[in-house]
Design brief:
By secondary structure, the protein is of the alpha/beta class. It has a single domain, classed as P-loop containing nucleotide triphosphate hydrolases (Rossmann fold, 3-Layer(aba) Sandwich). About 25% of the residues lie in helices and about 25% in strands. A six-stranded parallel sheet has the order 2-5-1-6-7-8, with helices on one face. The longest helix is centred in the N-terminal third of the chain and has 14 residues. It is globular and about 55 Å long. It starts with 5 loop residues before the first strand and ends with a helix.
């Protein structure tokens, strides 16, 4: 099991998970940290492009396809991979943030935005912290929707 701190950002669709994570990455990078993000996609996605070599390899049946250049690499597992297995492949970073993984025992940062009319995405007692525009969660570590610095301070303690 990885020793890198892992935090899961959870919220209903359209609540601001991606925006929060984007701002948090910028804040953490500004403090000199190395950051990894794992995004759960409920839809099928494809990073390959039809007709390209890697697409052809995958289409031919490769279980794993790797694309690498001088500046980046992507490993495409053409099969289901549990989150734990993905996390074990991440190294040389100071913090890992996952988006959309509500299950599991990772500390969860829930986002609640009053305008959506939706409740927290998980029970309050399962929240490590809450990012919200509502004062309804007294007794839990809460941060305003724009208090990215305060959230970063909390995560780094």
């Amino acid at each position: 099991m990885t020793k890198i701190p892992i935090y899961s950002v959870v919220a209903f669709s359209g609540t601001g998970k991606t925006t929060l994570i984007e701002k948090l990455i910028l804040e953490l990078k500004g403090r000199g940290l190395r950051v990894a993000v794992v995004k759960h996609d409920a839809h099928e996605f494809d990073i390959d492009h039809e007709g390209k070599d890697s697409w052809r390899f995958t289409r031919a049946g490769a279980d794993v396809t790797v694309v690498a250049s001088g500046s980046k690499a992507a490993i495409m597992e053409n099969r289901p991979v549990p989150l734990e297995d993905l996390l074990e492949k991440i190294s040389d970073v100071d913090i890992i943030i996952t988006e959309g993984y509500k299950q599991g025992n990772r500390p969860k940062i829930a986002i609640h935005r009053s305008a959506t009319g939706k409740p927290l995405p998980i029970p309050a007692e399962e929240c490590f912290a809450i990012v919200t525009d509502s004062p309804a969660y007294a007794g839990l570590p809460c941060f305003g929707l724009e208090d990215i610095s305060g959230l970063a301070d909390f995560l780094l303690k």
